[in-house]
Amino acid sequence: MHEYHIVERIVKEALADRSREEIAEILLSVNESSGLDPESIKLYFEDIRQAYPQLKEAKLSINLTRVKLHCPKCNSDFERKEKSFACPHCRAEAQRSPLNKDIFIEKIKY
């Protein structure tokens, strides 16, 4: 049910700028470490979009992204490989990057 409220927020955000225009596609970016299930997101989107005429023909695409890490020692940002938190540049222990987002709208096609 967690995904339902997230999809509701995404739909409202997508409709905020151009609430009267029909949306053809919403492209979401979902981080692999978010714990969000892409299939549940798609199912909830199909349910929620029925209440909005602007989303009548809308398609939802999901781009899974890797975890982004930040190394405080050498100040570099990088995608996590495997299950390692080691910086590929200096091998120091990295942290989750502030650039890392669990879910966001990448693009809206009208």
Can you put this structure into words, describing what you see?
- The chain has a single domain (2-109), classed as hypothetical protein PF0899 fold.
- Helix content is 25%, strand content 28%.
- It has helices at residues 2-17, 38-49, and strands spanning 25-31, 59-65, 68-71, 76-79, 95-96, 103-109.
- The model has no long low-confidence stretch (mean pLDDT 90).
**Straight-line distance between termini:** 28 Å
CATH topology grouping:
hypothetical protein PF0899 fold
**How confident overall, as mean pLDDT?**
90
Count of beta strands: 6
Please identify the structural class as seen in this structure.
Answer: alpha+beta
Broad CATH class: Alpha Beta
- Domain count, please report it: 1
* Percentage of residues in helical conformation: 25-40%
Order of helices and strands: HEHEEEEE
How much strand content do the residues show?
25-35%
CA radius of gyration is 17 Å
Summarize the structure.
Helix content is 25%, strand content 28%. The chain has two helices and six strands.
Keywords:
3-stranded antiparallel β-sheet, 110 residues, 6 strands, 3-stranded mixed β-sheet, hypothetical protein PF0899 fold, elongated, alpha+beta
Lay out the secondary structure.
Blueprint: H1 2-17, E1 25-31, H2 38-49, E2 59-65, E3 68-71, E4 76-79, E5 95-96, E6 103-109
Parallel strand pairs: 1-2
Antiparallel strand pairs: 1-6, 3-4, 3-5
Helix pairs in contact: 1-2
